[in-house]
């Protein structure tokens, strides 16, 4: 088996993500490690480059700048829109991610609900972690070759990966 992490390999990770204040923002479940396909932008660039060449069992602490993470925050990405711009059957909750589609181009733009008022909803096109310096505690659990289908899709399948098909 391949000894170290390189492009086109499926990597299993245990991780904890914290912000500068040391608050845990996200972590993998003990029985469900993150699986990603190396070299296919499944994870933020700063973490992916730090993992290149690492082996199973290696632990590392990686500090990722916003530029190498979810990007800088763009204040212009925040907007107020009327509540009635959303379909009635959408239950709006703070922190929920939605996608708007430009019907003329078919482009999809994700956005996040920042606050919900009676008549006005504040949305933010910035990723919730934009502008945040990311502190990853990572352990490499597994490395394997990707299947042709996984390479074609650009993400892993099976446990911990995409299971949409
Ligand atoms: Zn797939």
Main sheet characteristics: 5 strands, antiparallel
Structural class: mainly beta
Q: Care to count the β-strands?
A: 9
Poorly predicted regions are: none
Relative helix content: under 10%
Mean pLDDT: 92
**Which molecules are bound besides the chains?**
zinc ion
As a percent range, the share of strand residues is 35-45%
DSSP summary: helix tally: 2
The CATH class of the largest domain turns out to be Alpha Beta
Q: State the CATH topology of the largest domain.
A: Chitinase A, domain 3
| Multimer state | single chain
Listing every helix as H and every strand as E from the N terminus to the C terminus, the arrangement reads: EEEHEEEEEEH
Radius of gyration: 18 Å
- CATH architecture of the largest domain, by name, is Roll
Q: What distance separates the N and C termini?
A: 26 Å
Number of domains: 2
Write the SSE topology.
Layout: E1 9-18, E2 24-27, E3 34-37, H1 45-51, E4 59-64, E5 78-82, E6 97-101, E7 108-116, E8 120-124, E9 134-145, H2 148-153
The structure holds zinc ion.
The site of zinc ion has 5 residues, from loops.
Structure in words:
This protein is mainly beta. It has two domains: 9-70 and 130-153, Chitinase A, domain 3; 75-124, Thrombin, subunit H (Beta Barrel), CATH 2.40.10.330. Helices cover 8% and strands 36% of the residues. It is built from two helices and nine strands, in the order βββαββββββα. The chain has helices at residues 45-51, 148-153; strands at residues 9-18, 24-27, 34-37, 59-64, 78-82, 97-101, 108-116, 120-124, 134-145. The strands form two sheets. Strands 1, 2, 3, 4 and 9 form a five-stranded antiparallel sheet that branches. Strands 5-8-7-6 form a four-stranded antiparallel sheet, with no helix packed on it. The mean pLDDT is 92. The chain binds zinc ion. Zinc ion (ZN) binds at residues 153, 155, 157, 162, 165. Zinc ion binds at residues 153, 155, 157, 162, 165.
């Amino acid at each position: 088996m391949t000894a170290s992490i390189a492009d086109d390999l499926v990597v299993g990770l245990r991780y904890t993500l914290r912000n500068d204040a040391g608050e845990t923002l996200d972590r993998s479940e003990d029985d469900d490690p993150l699986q990603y396909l190396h070299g296919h932008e499944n994870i933020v660039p700063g973490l992916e480059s730090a993992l290149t060449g690492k082996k199973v069992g290696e632990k590392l602490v990686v500090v990722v700048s916003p530029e190498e993470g979810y990007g800088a925050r763009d204040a212009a990405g925040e907007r107020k829109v009327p509540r009635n711009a959303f379909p009635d059957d959408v239950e709006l909750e703070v922190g929920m991610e939605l996608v708007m589609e430009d019907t003329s181009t078919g482009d999809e733009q994700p956005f996040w609900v920042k606050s919900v008022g009676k008549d006005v909803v504040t949305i933010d096109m910035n990723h919730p972690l934009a502008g945040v310096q990311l502190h990853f505690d990572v352990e490499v659990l597994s490395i394997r070759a990707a299947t042709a289908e996984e390479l074609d899709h650009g993400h892993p399948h099976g446990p911990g990966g995409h299971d949409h098909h």
